[in-house]
Amino acid sequence: METLDIHGIDDQGNDKIIIRNAYCYVGRDDNPSFIGSEPLEELSRTIWSSVGPSGPNKEYLYKLADSVRELSPDSFDSHLFALEELVKKYDEEEKLSLTSESS
């Protein structure tokens, strides 16, 4: 874990530090839980199907995306939101599959 300053934009459009020394998890190659660089499709499937000690990884992803939207509505994390979209797509596909099986 590392610390960093979180920046935001004030009402006049100026950059300012809004949180000092925030904790940040950084995935490193020497961490056994770090899967490394993967294509988005593969990574999203891994997230969708994986469960850790704190629960489903997809729930962590959804909460992270929601938090980014809430805490910094003017920012856009294309990687995070693309992962969220794909994982939600898998949820919907599973839901449709279960619905058609029960019919």
TrEMBL record:
It comes from the Eukaryota. Keywords: Lyase. The keyword Lyase applies. One of its GO terms (biological process) is glutathione catabolic process. The keyword Nucleus does not apply. GO terms for cellular component: cytoplasm. Its EC number is 4.3.2.7. It is an enzyme of class 4 (lyase). One of its GO terms (molecular function) is glutathione specific gamma-glutamylcyclotransferase activity. This is glutathione-specific gamma-glutamylcyclotransferase.
